[in-house]
Amino acid sequence: MRLSGNLSLYLGRQFLKNVGLICGILVSIIFLVDFIELLRRAGDKENITIGLVVQMTLMRLPDLTQKLLPFMALFGGMLTFFRLSKTSELTIIRAAGVSVWQFLLPSLVIAFLTGAFVLTVFNPLAATMEAHFEQLEAKYLEQRSNLLQLSSKDLWLRQVDPDGLSVIHARGALNQGIDLTEVIIFKYDRDEQFTSRIEADRARLRDGYWDLTDVLMTSPDQPGTVLDTMRLDTSLTVNQIQESFASPKTISFWELPQFINTLEEAGFSAVRHRLYWHSLLAAPVLLAAMVLVAATFSLRAQRQGRTGLLVMAGIATGFVFYFFTDIVYALGMSGGLPVQLAAWTPAATIALFGLSMMFHLEDG
């Protein structure tokens, strides 16, 4: 029997309603938990009000919601199929000759389209708000400023010196930021008054200092001095430089490819950003796969009568998937797996698991 349009709409509405309910519960929980955590961090800081903490929590909420979407699809799908089973609606639908694949189709389509909406519309909003949150976090909680700014042609670094600060401009970087080319360094005293300018063909980051070659040093009161090499003390490390790049979650899906190209052209690794971009691409498939897993445990509960045990098994599967994803992403970050493979493996694995279990349940 072919699934009618009215029945498809009804099943789709039930799925959306239950996913919305789960979404509301989880978002409320993460808002409360994150608010308490930020309140704890702000306890010993000055000039931080409750209103600012609430604002920061709201700014972070879209990104956290985005991370929990697979669980929302899983728990929302399980709740939908349990309710339909409890009211015997699924029994009637199956007795009318509708296969499991047909009555799952509305939920699968909605999950996939929701993933596409999050990818193209919600993610840019979440990225903008997360970027604003990180700015507030750096200013009020960590009391630091960004070390690095990167454009398509230039690299800017800011380092604090014992007697002031230095602003470093470079045309490019090599070896993941260890070597800078065509370097200009502007030095300022503690009152932020300009004291000198240093030009160098290359600057290499050593342990605790920059090793400059082919140096021209000038200052307002002295003539220029040419040096073959020069040592400039620094507290910066390679990790600090690389971590100062905008995190992937603060850049929208549409802007990430250009940012990745800019990073690689500047001589830095873009593995973290490329992995995140591919994981966003896999999101629609992942949400649909979670619906299959939800159906696996819900329909088995209907037939076998062990509802509580299978609910716990479904929840446990969600958490196993979460830890499995972290492990695979770590392998991708370390170079143990190709980036594309690491990003798509969790979605593909959960999809294959759901499909195999559904084939076993329906045809086994």
TrEMBL record:
Q: Which UniProt keywords apply?
A: Cell membrane, Membrane, Transmembrane, Transmembrane helix
**Sequence intervals crossing the membrane:** 15-36, 68-84, 104-126, 275-297, 309-329, 341-361
Q: Where in the cell is it found?
A: Cell membrane
Q: Which InterPro entries match?
A: LptG (IPR030923), LptG/LptF_permease (IPR005495)
Q: Does the keyword Transmembrane helix apply?
A: yes
**The keyword Chloroplast appears for this protein:** no
Q: What is this protein called?
A: LPS export ABC transporter permease LptG
Q: Which organism is this protein's natural source?
A: Sneathiella chinensis
Q: Which domain of life is it from?
A: Bacteria
Pfam families linked to this entry: LptF_LptG
